User: Fold these one by one.
Assistant:
Number 1:
Amino acid sequence: MFKPPPAVKVSPSRPMEPPGSSLFNDHAADKRERLKSNVGYVKSMISRATPAQQAKNEKEFNDVVADYKTLRNLKDYCVHVDLDAFYAQVECLREPKYTRLPMAVGGDSMLSTANYPARKFGVKSGMPGFQAKKLCPQLVILPCDFKLYHKASWSFHQVLSKFDPDVRMAGLDEAYLNLSNFVADAPDGYSMNTVAYDGECQCNRPRKDDITEDDEVISSGDITCTICGMAQLYFNCTMNFSPGIDGMIRMLRMEVAMRTNLSCSAGIASSYYLAKVCSDINKPNGQFILPGDNDALDTFILSSPLKLFPGIGPTSSNSLAEFGIKTVADLLNHKKNLRFMVSNSQYYLLTRIVAGVDCPPDETEESTNETDNGIDSGKTVGTESTFTPTSNQAELVSLIRSFAKSAIESAKGDGVTSVGILFVKVKLGSYDVHTCSQKFNEQVPLTNVELLQNVSETLLTKFIAKQGKKDIRLLGVRYGELGMAPLSKVQTGLKSFLNKPTVGGRCVKRRKLEENTDPVTVIDLE
């Protein structure tokens, strides 16, 4: 175990801050100073810009966005599914009392997630634990248990893969699916036999609130929960799902609830990027569909705050806000100066946001850089996570090997078959970020899991040996120079899944409930 920091002497009039707070505040102060300096430099460049330069910038922006918009495919049904407060939900399955108490997962230095009772106090992911406790003194903070979360994530993936065999995991708690082919062939609708629950006990899903007026309750009664021992109501019912994407996504969320006992939210749009934005709109346990219509798309995009979009973090949003840019509509009012404000990669990200598409118009130059041998030299794929700072090398090695394997699964979901370079990201307890890399002499197939795990471990241990025994709060593994397999858009998994009559809450084609279904089986936490 690592030693706690030494006690700090303080005057009686000033309460002692929790461990880690000074580091965080110093780091935040440094970031503010850098932001102030950068903004001053950009403003000086803008003041020296000529009208001809600004006119050229505005024309370039308009041309790039127009090119991007030609890539819109309004017939696509891209879906982003996100488990709600994932780590916290899984901890509640292990200890149901935390369902009703403000609880977060992480440590005093950084929270990985917080449950919804805690969020009512303003506690949120990425917040230092000591700040969260100021907002909510009764907050319970639990340490991360990645072994448990990987197990729950696997169950989540198993459900989604039945709806789309090519499902792409983007971390443990979120995934992307494409149901376009399916919706085109959707029948009149589906029915699902299941049991819903109500009462003070929150251990089982789906809940009574998930039953709609289109569903049919067959019977109900009182039972005692076998998990927490509290009384609860049960409702044997038939859930009826309307044809089309709305009914299909509701069916997917109910299937996740039954098979994992976890709630999830979903966003549906014509691009994966917008689908991810949409999945946050009706959280928790909800869904939002952005209509596949150009006017609806433009209205939604222009009215949205920039900070909602993936890739626009606090640093970027705060920097742009200094110039009065908070929404996408604001961005359009600064087209002539945008080139001065952001880097080249940020510029193309922002123009993609305006256009509402996933990838640039010229993939060979701006996106994939894929060569004739099928190697994508411009894209990387991987995973990372924040945890309670530790210098325990055995723990860190276990985490990096686990992340290396998770990154492999994410890469496979993107159609990657081999990698040419491996990156390890390390964020120290001081918030300083470092990246180590290993370039391979030849492409390494993703089937060689042990080799990729060993290289990740070696990079980390060499870094630790060089830096000394310091606390680490984040680790990540990413793969680059990706060898790509031809992508298949054929989706057969959901059709066979839905057309196969089964018991225990599976979907069947518009048939009545023949017998009461058993209570759901949740993920094994042992």
Number 2:
Amino acid sequence: MYTKDWHLFGWISLGMGCIGLVICPFLPESARWLVSQGKCEEATKVLVKMAKENGKDGNKDIIGGDVKYLVDENKTVPKGSLRTIFSNGRLCFNFIMLTICISTSTFMLDMTYLNATHMGGYKFLNVIILFAAGFAGGSVGGLFMIVWAKMRRPLQQSGTNFFLLLFVHRLQDSLSL
């Protein structure tokens, strides 16, 4: 049932991350996100398709008018940025607490992973190094997916998980000499 070789578990985990990246282009985009990006025609198509699937009247002119109104209304609202998070004290505190919670979750997962694999060397240093790799993998994956996927949520989450698993897998591969 158990294997002393952690490579199999690492490749299975990495494969699951790849599945998320493969299926994301086939997921429909959120009409709310399309409206927030000012993409009227695409949002109208999504809403008309949803109306038809729900058996409702999918009048493109009415829905398109509503979408244009929402886009115009959305343009008057100031856009948030990363600077906004750090300029507002409460948002900054929440962001830091969320980062600590995610890092702790990753840390616990990595500690369990290390205990299961019996990696050689100084075990506490291995835990800290692996935690750093997990944090770096999640951060780089998240930033890459924000830039590359233009904030498409499912793709961003799948990409973050993929890069996290890739970093952890590669680091563990290089540490086990």
Number 3:
Amino acid sequence: MGKKDGGLLPCIDYRQLNSQIQQQPYPLPLVPAALEEFRGARIFSKLDLRSAYNLIHIREGDEWKMAFITPTGHYEYRVMPYGLSISPAVFQTFMNEVLWEYLHRFVMVYIDDILIYSRNEAEHRQHVQQVLHKLREHQLFLKLEKCEFHQPLVQFLGYVLSGEGVQMDQGKIQVILDWPIPSTLQRFLDFANFYRQFIMNYSIITASLTSLLRGKPKHLAWNPAAHEAFHQFQTIFCTAPLLRHLNPEFVVEVDASTTGVGAVLSQVVGEPPLLHACAFCSRKLTPAEQNYDVGNRELLAIKLVLEEWRHWLEGSTHQFTIITDHKNLQYLREAKRLNPPTGPLGSLLHKFSIDTPLEPENILPDDVISRPIIWDLEENICHTTLQEPAPPECPE
């Protein structure tokens, strides 16, 4: 099988062997969660190991299990081959043991990809030397042509990282833009879902597409609504914002429509102060939830936010503001008795330090600098910041 660098990779059918192997339940890092570690980092280096899996030796006596036949003869691997179901977990375990003292401090490892991040040049030089020393100590070799050192911006695992925040990889955006009308819709949605944290109201926008998969139909019933949603989705990928690194002062904005709920997590940046998006979340409403009145749909959106971003909001030393269209949140905090639907949310609210919620009508319309982001889910208005630099135009 051809590789991107022009080399060849043996492609061996290990399905029968994989069915007999005892799996190693070692988790790979969750990349979206790991992105939080880069807050405050300004300098990055990216390392790529050469022939990563082949750096692990097969236990003596087990080589015959990896045997394969070619027109030129019978061969046995003496090192861990590509194609084994346990190879990623085994190598991730090995790399975590090699660099364990640096993980979550200034190093992230995802199988054979290593990212070193630091706050300044002097600190970064020391961090790179420490990592290279460890790799040499364990006889791990780098593919120099794929390494980058001391960069203010770096592409890593489908993201573009910088001191300002996280962006989509432009190469992946181009894949979305060039995607033809899908004959296999699930594959397109799986690919796009990787970047859902960058897309406001992702679940609402894709509702026309996901509804086509209901009941697992044998044939895709493509309709005008799905066609419009597909092209709208491609356009939105062009205008996805830079997600800022988080600081403790948050503004949470929630809204609900008849089909879904959504929210944006923002923070105040710069002088004069502007709101910049840090994260998005959204969810389609179930048929039962679509029967809720407007107030209860708003409360459902708040519940989604508090659960989705709990690791950022709960226990924070700074209060955060929730902006909603209705006064239900204020009622929940003051009510002595709560009905069954709102009771769990009322208990959940007491775990968070929430500032007095603002309402859109209480915000001066001419106060452009400090005005929060207010959007309409029904019309899918996707402006995420005020006075941001204009996004690049979509290619024709």
Number 4:
Amino acid sequence: MGKLSKRILVICSIIILPIVIYSTFEGEPVEKSLAVDDESKESKDESGALIHDILLIYSHPSDTNSYISEINNDKEVNTIKLDATGIFDVNSKENGNLLLSSDMVNNNVEVEPNKLDVVRKDKTEYPLNLYISQPNLKVQGFNKDTQSNIVKITTDKDTWEYDFPPLVRNISFNDSFVFIFSDVIEEEKSVLYKIDRETGKEELINLEHNFASDMEVISNKVVITTEGNLTVYDIDNGEVSYIALDDVKNFDQIHQRNERVYISYMKNGKSGVMALEKDLKIISSKEFEFAHNISKFKHNNLYLNTTSDYGKNNTLRIVNLDDFKITDSFKLPVKDHKLQNLYVK
């Protein structure tokens, strides 16, 4: 979806009853839990240096061969081949296993992360594009077709199903609400759905900027890394604001740590990272002499991957968030397909 044309911002709140869809999905429902960011579990070598234990996902949307490789820093320690097409996403489950899935095909693979043993394979009726699992909240999003994204929300009291126009992209939540960002492609606009966890009622908030890379609830605000500016929705008063930061037009991932907010970004063809206060005022920022295609935060590090040769040659650089210095850099293994994603254990 291209950049939306400039227009007058209209903030509207439309209360809509949930659309209930009765549909049976093949296989066990797929779930995601948010892992606790416990730095005490980080591994170190004999010299005390940090060991970066990383899983790499290689795949192709039309080839049944997908690969998972595990590396400890620059050493490849394990690789398995999956008979599953187009695996792109990897997330942790409540049982400690990893869920591998794709928003393009309906393959789901559960893997034990230590030995990379395949625990389960199944197919949902539609490709999975959203999933969260918490003790009192489960969310599954399904990319049904070009006209429909189905979202199923289960709390400890009720279950609701919604039929949203595509493209549903991001999800976040707090104790009271579930927030879903969507680019409504046919209408060339972007919206935020605010769903009450007690009643299932839905509020629609129109947004000015599109294409969200990430979304987080920070204090009483929903912060969305949309194209051009940060989009900020105030949960208490319902106001939407847009924040321009240091002429950055392409924001990427958001990370909260030690009362600070970190955001990765691209600026003038170069990768960057900034540290902000909780009120989103910039403390410091840093640009690098390369451009990333994948960025991931974990603990006190930012992982930036650069690629060439159609995704086959990849270099991973690791940035310390205290001083924004690159602490490690190494080449990643080459496989039959391009690197699609990475997961830091």
